[in-house]
Amino acid sequence: MNSESAAERIDTSKPHPARRYDYWLGGKDNFPADRESADAVAEAFPTVRLAAVENRNFLRRVTRYLAAEAGIRQFLDIGAGLPTAGNVHEIAQGIAPESRIVYIDNDPIVLVHARTLLNSAPEGRTAYIDADLRDPDRILDHPDLRATLDLNQPVALMLVAIMHFFTDDTKPYELVRTLCEALPPGSHLVMSHATNDYLEDEDRARTTEANQRSGVPFQLRSSAEFTKFFSGFELVAPGITSVTDWRPDEYRPQPRAEAISMLGGVAHIR
Asked: How many folded domains does the chain comprise?
């Protein structure tokens, strides 16, 4: 991993989803272009910061479920983003220290900080790969992935808050299917996705315009469109829900689904 070359590749003049998400979560690894893009979205969707937090909480709850209840010991987290508290390997290895995790992202600033994602428990292993979901074969054939994960054993494929950056012309369903077909029976698909289910026509138009102005490709999808990603797989209860309603923590109040506008689901790949 060459952090110096990664730093040289960082383009601070264009917004990137990972850095924009970092800004919404209160992080410091973002630049004016990222903040301007994020603020443009927030003008139309004022609760976007809450949505980012709740999406992260969904990731943590799902990881706990997979490690503690489903017995998953391998995780492929694509679109991992900048490290923050409660990364997948920290949660999974806290339950099963032998867990193995591969993180994928295409933002060079994430690569600069990737050493945080490589702080594995000695019994397990983590790896970070600088790659793009648009090239799934490169991800699947990468030697670091093959050295970390055994693709003959179940893997949790985690596509959390990433597929809404893939508009229909990029063939998002085919990308997800290619990744899932490489995984053995017993694997799981984890996804969350921004939705237009809770938006009135006027709000939908305003949100679409704000996303176009933000400079980051983005496509809201309905529950039916999101569910299509799981076609042929067995959804884990409670099925497709708001991320706040997917096995929520009982001790904390849940925000309204329309304030989050994010769907989540987990499916068993048989």
From this structure: 1
